[in-house]
Specification:
The protein is of the alpha/beta class. It is built from 22 helices and ten strands. α20 crosses α21. The longest helix is centred in the N-terminal third of the chain and has 40 residues. The chain is globular and about 80 Å long.
């Protein structure tokens, strides 16, 4: 039975379609969503075969919805529900690959006809895909082990790996090396790197069949790396273009044949194998930046240095320097490094992606701060000041309407974080001690059902008094601090892609996962799924 997701913002329509006998069309209704944002959240943990969606919805219309889904799950088929005034949207959706559309109010005879046709198309695609995978497996059996040294030395984990690499693979003085990194767009997908590696290998061998080429591949954490050694008289610029073409063809092939969407990043060419660490930094930097955009399935570091991309790209080392400077509390140094950082935003950058990346930067700073706060004085109070400060900064930056306003807002507001971390050691009052004890309870028992009533009984003071002194000493309400603590833990759990979002919600103390998503979006300016994709 094929799986179906229905998306519509009208409760009556959603309820009516939910009652339809989908089994008669060969489908099983696996879920519903009231708009595209909730549907994207649903797709993080589920993979339907088809989506029946309204074309006009708040927050994310059908066209933007199909664009987003086609990047995450290229295999999904769409049928749209549309009104007479929505044909401009519908025409665009059909161009993007939607199977068909139905006019509202829905004629159920027409619905059955369309869904039966869609069922046959999906089944035919599945048969074609299975046949292709079977042929691919046979081809891999014949060629894969012969052409790929899959387990090349333990680079980036063994200190002696570079010298071992040099001794195992003889390099001539005319050899040049390049590193290609790849990352699945949908992080929750099952990672079958073998197919990705093999398809890329075939494209590279076809492109460079007249050159001396050696390719070794390695999986590392969430990513895959292809180390390419070339002996060619062509210039580096030409070679980069040819490798870009290989990656684009591999991406297209994987999408159409396997329903997998992969992003590729290409380092600079180098003649010294000892520079492989540098090449990995380049590739990782590009892949990190590409998480904030669906517009660049293939990136090369040489084009980045030529400012050919509309992405905000910066090295992890540079970001760490910003963090250290902010934590030091040195306002002048922070101003200087922030100005350099903001100059890295290209004038062609899309404002939403810049905001999205900045939100990710702040979330990583919170993690950085938490990792180091044990060595800082008054850690609980400092943490309670950090969270509301970051939330206010996110709100202010997200309200900016132009790129210049975003730059200005970041520069003005990020300095608010520089003094956090420089707490003093003055004696604590009774109120401060009580608040510190309550914050400690929140820190350790956040996953339990903590309520002000329980704290009132525990410390023999009134509930209004506890509420008042927490607000007075931290600037935040008890519930805001509790939720922020829970969400901080959730951000760590979201890095574990084997955990479902609804399970993480319960693990940190939220019994209602929809409320968890709502609170997370309010706190961080993005959904748990969006956060998972950028980490």
């Amino acid at each position: 039975m094929l799986k179906l997701l229905i998306v519509d913002d009208e409760p009556l329509v959603l309820n009516g379609l939910s009652q339809y006998d989908w089994n008669s069309c060969g489908f099983e209704l696996m879920g519903t969503a009231k708009n595209g944002l909730y549907a994207i959240e649903f797709l993080e943990d589920h993979t339907p075969d088809a989506i029946l969606s309204d074309i006009r919805m708040p927050k994310m219309n059908g066209v933007k919805f199909i664009e987003k889904v086609m990047v995450l799950l290229p295999d999904i088929e769409f049928v749209f529900l549309t009104g007479f005034n929505d044909f401009a949207y519908t025409k665009e959706a059909i161009k993007l690959g939607a199977y068909d559309y139905l006019l509202k109010p829905v004629d159920f005879d027409e619905l059955e006809k369309v869904m039966l046709g869609l069922k046959q198309k999906i089944l035919d695609k599945k048969k074609e895909k299975e046949a292709f995978i079977h042929l691919l497996e046979k081809e891999q059996e014949l060629n894969y082990l012969k052409n790929i040294d899959h387990l090349f030395p333990a680079l980036w984990s063994d200190p002696q790996s570079i010298s071992k690499f040099q001794s195992d693979f003889k390099f001539s003085s005319t050899d040049r090396i390049v590193l290609i990194g790849s990352d699945l767009v949908r992080q929750s997908s099952e990672k079958n790197w073998k197919d990705t590696q093999f398809i890329l290998l075939k494209e590279l061998q076809e492109q460079f069949k007249r050159e001396d080429i050696r390719i070794m591949q390695k999986e590392l954490e969430e990513l895959n790396y292809s180390f390419v050694i070339l002996n060619s008289i062509k210039g580096d610029a030409v070679l980069v273009q040819e490798i870009e073409r290989c990656c684009q063809e591999a991406n297209k092939f994987l999408k159409t044949k396997l329903g997998v969407s992969v992003k590729f990043a290409i380092s600079e060419f180098h003649s010294n194998v000892n520079e492989i660490e540098t090449l990995k930094v380049q590739v990782d930097t590009l892949l990190t930046a590409s998480k904030f955009s669906t517009d660049h399935p293939v990136l090369s570091f040489s084009k980045y240095t030529e400012k050919k991309y509309d992405l905000w790209i910066f090295l992890d080392d540079f970001q760490m320097n910003i963090f250290e400077t902010m934590l030091s509390g040195n306002v002048n140094q922070t101003k200087n490094i922030i100005e350099s950082w903001l100059k890295m935003i290209p004038e062609t950058a899309k404002i939403d992606f810049v905001k999205f990346r900045f939100n990710g930067f702040l979330l990583e700073y919170m993690q950085f701060f938490n990792d180091r706060k044990a060595r800082l004085p008054k850690t609980q109070q400092l943490a309670s000041h950090l969270y509301p400060c970051i939330i206010r900064i996110i709100e202010k930056v997200n309200s900016a309407e132009t790129l210049s306003e975003v730059r200005k807002s970041i520069k003005e507001n990020i300095l608010l974080l520089t003094n956090i971390g420089n707490g003093n050691n003055k004696g604590k009052t009774k109120k401060e001690k009580l608040v510190e004890q309550i914050l400690m309870i929140i820190e350790t028992d956040y996953a339990d059902d903590i309520a002000l009533e329980d704290l009132s009984d525990k410390y023999n003071v009134s509930k209004p008094y506890i509420s008042k002194i927490i607000k007075e000493k931290t600037g935040r309400s008890f519930m805001d601090i509790l939720n922020s603590t829970r969400l901080t833990v959730a951000t760590d759990l979201l890095k574990e892609h084997g955990l479902k979002i609804k399970d993480i919600s319960k693990m940190v103390g939220f019994m209602d996962d929809s409320y968890f998503i709502k609170v997370f979006r309010k706190e961080y300016g993005m959904t748990p799924s969006d956060y998972r994709r950028i980490m």
